[in-house]
Amino acid sequence: MKIVSPSEMAIMDQKTIEAGITDYELMERAGTRCAEIIIRDITAGEKILVLCGTGNNGGDGLVIARLLYHAGYAVTTYIFGDPSKMTPSCKKNVERLKAIGASVRLGSNAESVYFAKADVIIDAVFGNGLKNRPISPDMKAVFDAVNEGNARVFAIDSPSGLRGDNGKTIGAAIKADRTLVIQNIKTGLLLNEGPDTAGEICIVDVGIDENTVETGKYRLTIDDLSPIGGRKKQSHKYQYGYVGVIAGSRGMLGAGLLACSAAIKTGAGLVEGWVDDQIYPIMAAKMPWEIMVKPYGKRVDALEASKVTVWLYGPGCGRTTNDGELLRALLGSDKPVVIDADGLWHLSRHRDLLKNHRAPLVISPHIGEFCALSGIGQQELSEDPVAIGRSFAKENNLILILKNHHTMIFTPDGCVRFNMTGNPGMATAGSGDVLAGMLAGFIAQTEDLTVAVQRAVCIHGLAGDMARDHVGECSLTASDIIKALPGAIRRITEP
Predict the structure, then answer these.
(1) Range list for CATH 3.40.50.10260 in the chain
(2) Chain segment 216-270, per-residue pLDDT in tens
(3) Among 44, 288, 318, 352, which residue's beta carbon has the most beta carbons within 10 A?
(4) Is the CATH number 3.40.50.10260 carried by domain 6-215?
(5) Does domain 223-491 have CATH number 3.20.20.10?
(6) 346-396, pLDDT tens digit by residue?
(7) Crossing angle for the helix pair 431-445 and 253-265, nearest 10 degrees?
(8) Where in the chain is the domain with CATH 3.40.1190.20?
(9) Which pLDDT does position 35 carry in this prediction?
């Protein structure tokens, strides 16, 4: 499924209208589908407030209010904004709602005391096309009243106050329990403050054809992954890849242990931990028995002579050395390389290698690491992370995995995929090291680099979700994610 910006959604709407469905009919269809979902989650006797604006998002809310009133629910509707600026379809639905005797009021912050008495609030004030302009004090008071109450909140298409393009709020925003997204998820729901504002996302199909616009942005779920085929009976370990993990240093042994363990658990045929001479005795003693440990002292000749087929460099490597020659050797070969954590710090000091690398390259920074590597400030990145990530991946001919709640995978062809698995419990030490190991493990077994990366990112999140279900978010550790990997991988493995 495509992810769309507000402007792309507007084109899809217009194309649908040009195909013969009127704006008013689309509004009726959207309101009807949303009302059907809401009715399944409310009970008789609950007090329902519907908050509407004067645009088409407000019109959707008015349709919902009419249908809930017809179904016998106690519904009060507030309309915010200048009535003279109401869209024709919205105005028509106001008249229909008044005609059946439902309560319709012109909203103001003075009436916000009534919001606290509601059991259910339906937010249809603003649509997804908000620009970077502050809301009025009166509107902020309304939003605050909604957020301070105990009502369950359904937002229609996007929580009011949240920008649909980049997920920033315009001074204040309604925090929804569920957001009923019309047809396609908007980028703002997945970026910045979007995930914490939107709550649970429920997609409402109203028959708009997403193929009328090319967005290059896609949702990534386990259903989008190609199955992992079974292994041949006549095969050996080298057919499933030989992973070299350059990781760990004094005081940061765990990163290398986690990365190596994740790589072998992901299915790599052979995993070898390449460690500094000083920590070799400890790493050799602690590493799982299936993993070889090699002291190498960061000697470039040892790397070049190795039969490793995929390299992972960086988890826990430390920042006390100059790894320029090591990086040059890795990126100058034709073997795929995954760079993460401290490896990204070293790469940021040798940025010339980004432009001239020969090796197929995958990097997996979090926001701070990406900003240090790219030289782009976090504020600038937050304004348009999609455009910046696309540009960086294309210019440097690499796959960029920008880790966040909805991790984004950018490929050199301009596509970006938003991962939909994972949970806040995975914001824990070592979680990124597990992902790095999984990336190397899947790349070792998969011909298509992009397919391997999608598998690693999505299954990493799925394993985190399965671990959360077992231990809870607060107690979730990176080791729990590794323990959940076999079950997660089975979910997409062919029977």
Answers:
(1) 6-215
(2) 999 999 999 988 888 889 999 988 999 999 999 999 999 999 999 999 999 999 9
(3) 318
(4) yes
(5) no
(6) 999 999 999 889 999 999 999 999 999 999 999 999 999 999 999 999 999
(7) 40
(8) 223-491
(9) 98
51-74: pLDDT as tens digits: 999 999 999 999 999 999 999 999
Tokens read off for 313? 């460099």
At 88 the pLDDT is: 95
pLDDT lower than 50: segments of the chain: 110
pTM (predicted TM-score): 0.95
Residue with tokens 């603003």, as numbered in its chain: 126
pLDDT at 113: 55
Q: At what angle do helices 431-445 and 478-491 cross, to 10 degrees?
A: 30
